[in-house]
Amino acid sequence: MARQLLCSCCCLLIAASTCVYGNPRVNIGNVIYSGEYLDGSRTSVLFRGLPYAEPPVGDLRWQPPQSIQPSPVSEDNAVMPADAFSPVCPQGDGNVKWYRTVATAFANADASTVEAEPISEDCLYLNIWSTNFQQESKQPVMVWIHGGGNQTGWAFEPNYRGANLAAKGVVVVSINYRLGPFGFLAHPLLSGESTLGISGNYGLLDQIAALRWVANHIEQFGGDPGRITLFGESAGAADIAYLILSPLAEGLFHRAISQSGGYLLKNTQALQQEESMGVKLAELLQIANDDRALINMRGKSPAEILAAAGTFAATHSFNVNIDGTILPDRPARMLRQGNHNRVDLMIGSNANEWSMYVKDELTYDELLDDIAVNYKQDAEQLKALLHPDDAKVAMDQLYTSSEMLCTSKYIATRMSEKNQNVYHYHFTRIRPGAGGEKLKAYHGAEIPYVFDNHDSWLPTDSVDVELTEFMISFWAEFAKTGDPNNDDLPIWPALGPAKNYLEFGNRLLIGRNLAKDVCAIMERRLDRNAIPD
Question: What pLDDT score does 533 carry?
C-alpha cells in the first residue's frame, strides 16, 4: 500500500497536541488508521484513502480484487495515516473536461483547474465521512459510486465530498474502482486462467469488494451494516443497476439510488465480443498470442495500455459484459423476468441530459438521418414527438429520453412489480445566468444538490438553497427507511400503478406517467430487447 507507516514511539518525540493519537483511529486487520476530526465534537470525522483490496498491480492486473490479509500483531502498533486521498485509477480526461465545460459555461474558474492526479494502478481505496464516529447507535450508510462512463472519474471529485450529506445523519462512503481497459478488459487467455472461465468486469468486482469491506468494518465508523444504500450517477448509477442484477452482490446492500443511469438496459455486449476486443488491444500492443502473452500484457505500462485503447475509443470502450456469472443475462431481459435482487429503489433523470453533448452545428437533416438509422420502425412516430424546428433541442429530447428518462422509468416500473418502495424523480432546475441558458438541466446537474457542494463554484440563489435542503433530506431519509417521506418534507408518492414521480425544479411538483408517449415507444423497444433470442 502506498502509505508511510508511523510508529507509536514517534509520539514520544513530538508534542501531544500534534501526536497522531490525537486523531480518530480505527483498527482494521491489525493496522491502526488515523483520520481527522472535522469539528470539536470528536464524533465528526473524515478518513481518506482506506484500502479495501490489495493493489491490483503486477500479476494482479486483470484479476478479481484480492482481500487485504490481516497484518501480524506487532508490538510496534503501526499507525497508517488516512488523511490524504489516494491516487485515482488510470484514465483519460473525460471527467476533467466535464468540470471544465460546466465551469466555462458559468464563467467560473474554480472547477476549471480540476485534475485527475496523481494516477496509479494502486487505487483501490475508499473515503468515509461520519458524524457518528464510534457511537453505540448506528446510522445508515450511503456508498457513492462515481460516474464517467466506466472510463474516467474518481471518488473524491469536488462534487462528491460527503461532509454536508453526512451531517444529515448518514455515514457517507465514496470508492474508487478500476476503469476502462484496466477495469473491463476481457481476453480469451484471461478467461482461460479464471476458475469461472470469464474475464472483464473487474470494476464491478471492485465495487462488490468495497461493499464487503463496508459490511465488515463500517460499524467502527458509526455505520449500520444492515442499512447500506448504494447511490451513484451516470455510469455509477448504471453499475448500481448491474449490482442489483448480479447474484454476487445479493445481500450486500439494501437500497439503491440511481441518478441518470438507465442506459445500461440497452447493453447486449457478450463476453465473447469483449474478448475479441481484448485480442485487438493485444495486437495493437504488438504482443504475440503465445504462452507469454499475459506476462507481456501485464508488463506494459498504464500509459501504453491507455494509448492503445484510445486508438479505437471512438467506436468501442471497454465496459461491462454479459459473462453469465457476474451479469447473467441482458439487463432488460432480467428485469422483465424479475430476476434481480430485492432492494428499495429511488431512480430518476434530468430534463436535458444530452444538452452539453449536442454539437452546435447540428442540422435537422442530420438529426433525421440519425433517427432513421437508429430507430427504424419507430422513426416516424418519434419524429412527431420531437421539437419540429430546433435540431439541438430535438436531439437533446431524443437521447435524454432513450438513454436516461425512459430507461429509468422502465427500471422503476419493472422493480415496482416486486417492491412497493420504488420512487421516481425528474430534475428540471435550471440555474440562473448564461450557464443555465446554455446547459439547462444538464447531465450531472443534480449532484451538487445531493451533496450540497455547489456554493463555491456554481451560481446559487434562494431557490437552489431550498432545493438543496429538500433533495439532501430526501436522499438521507430514503437511506434511513427506504421511504424518502417524513413529516418535515413535502409528500413524495411511490411510483405505484399511476407511475407517480416528483419533479425537482423551481418548485416541487407531483406528476404522473412522465413522458408517456415517447416512453411508450422506448419501452416497446426495451421489451423487444428483452425477448429471448
Answer: 54
Beta strand 79-81 with 422-427 is: unpaired
Q: What is the pLDDT of residues 316-348, one digit of tens each?
A: 999 999 999 999 999 999 999 999 999 999 999
**HSE of 391, CA atoms in CB hemisphere, 13 A:** 15
Whole-number Å distance between alpha carbons of 230 and 254: 8
Residue 1 lies in a domain: no
The pLDDT, as a whole number, for residue 455 is 78
Upstream peptide bond of 72 is cis (omega within 30 degrees of 0): no
Q: How many CA atoms lie within 13 A of 179 on its CB side?
A: 30
Handedness of CA 455, 457, 463, 467 (dihedral sign): negative
Pick the closest to residue 35 from 207, 227, 203, 171 (CA basis): 171
- What does the pLDDT read at residue 532? 59
Express each pLDDT in 501-510 by its tens digit. Answer: 999 999 999 9
How is residue 285 written as a grid cell?
500492443
CATH of the domain at 484: 3.40.50.1820
- Active-site residue numbers? 234, 353
Domain total of the chain: 1
Listed residue (265, 258, 257, 294) closest to 278, CA to CA: 294
Residue 72, domain member (yes or no): yes
Phi, psi dihedral angles at 284 (to 5 degrees): -65, -30
With a cut of 50, list the residues of the chain below it in pLDDT: 1-21
Q: What is the pLDDT of residue 76?
A: 61
Q: Are 527 and 336 in contact (CB under 8 A)?
A: yes
pTM exceeding 0.85: yes
- Residue 194 in any domain: the answer is yes
85 occurs within a structural domain: no
pLDDT of 117 reads 86
Q: Residues, the chain, total?
A: 533
- Rounded Cα gap, residues 145 and 160, in angstroms: 10
Its domain, for residue 298, covers 8-80+96-530
| Cβ-contact 529, 516 below 8 angstroms | no
